[in-house]
Predict the 3D structure of the following.
Amino acid sequence: MGNENVRQKKSLIDKLTEIRHELHRFPEVSQKEYKTTERLSNWLTEAGYTILPFDIETGLVAEIRGGLPGPTVAYRTDIDALPIQEQTGLSYASTNDGVSHACGHDFHMTIALGAAFVLAEKKEQLKGTVRFIFQPAEETTQGARQLIEAGLFTDEKIEAIFGLHNQPAIAAGKVGLTDHHLMGAVDTIRITINGHGGHGAMPHQTIDSVVAGSAVVMGLQSAVSRNIDPFEPVVITLGSFHSGTTHNVIAQSAELFGTVRSFNPKIRAKLPELIERISKEIAKGYGAEAEVEFIPQVPAIDNDTLMTQFVQEAVEEVLGKDAVVKPNPTLGGEDFSLYQQHVPGCYFWMGTGDAEKGITKHWHDPAFLVNDDVTLDAVTVVVNTLERALDHFSIQTNKGRNT
């Protein structure tokens, strides 16, 4: 029996490695994941899954109903690639020029597929239903919203949702897990500075939008340092400043484009007014006007305590008591947080780092690599987590029926 288990594991590892390399070779950017969706649909249908008829152009939701009645739990993975030219030198490197899986979504899809295959093999023992969400457009933070608007949480009650991301900053064999904030809220700001253009040699006859805009950029640096509790992580970054057409003309207007990151929802709610006040008053001091657009995108990842417990128990069973590590949260964003606005969930980091194998580059690096050796452990953790959630909610449902 032991030898049979070894053979089954080897067969699954080989299959998943082949799948991951195929997905890696043919990456597609957000909202263009047509072939990726087709491949996923074929693999899942072949494994016995039902593809649910959600009105989405790319991505899919696959469902398997267990042999025993029970609740529904979900697992989400992302499927889009980045507009980055790959520089890994891999034999299975991207064949799509200027596009690559430089964030490891090919790895994430493979883990989800592996978990789906394992659960299909034990379908009759499942106490309920599992939905696998293969979400498009995570990199643009639009995919989760599309699925929610398509009815993900309205056609059937989902009790819990889980997801993971690779993390090369954490050693392979370890898992970064927290029952609080893991990744930050993401919002966008667009500030238009309106002045009065004119000749570069006669600035006194103008209102210089470049000078006023530059002052706004510098002033917004104090928005955090002098207005926000220093124990509350907030970042305001102006990444783009566009103005003018040539060297000797003072520009009529300037456009600043930036990103705002935070954790605390109460602080996040105060930021639009703060940014608008600082921008407008500084511009006014230069005789200019500022128009501020604050564009909410996604809230922070804030993990549910009980769902985190399920993941922790699964990790400890699969990888040992010392495998769970306290992660350093990042203000990088993840639209998994939108699902957490509807159901309790947990999002965690699967360590992939291995300096000896050269797996040290971080997300969005052209030379980014993932770690195929971690795949089977990740699959087992996901399966174990989903089964624990089904068991828990099955017991809760039965208690409700008996009272």
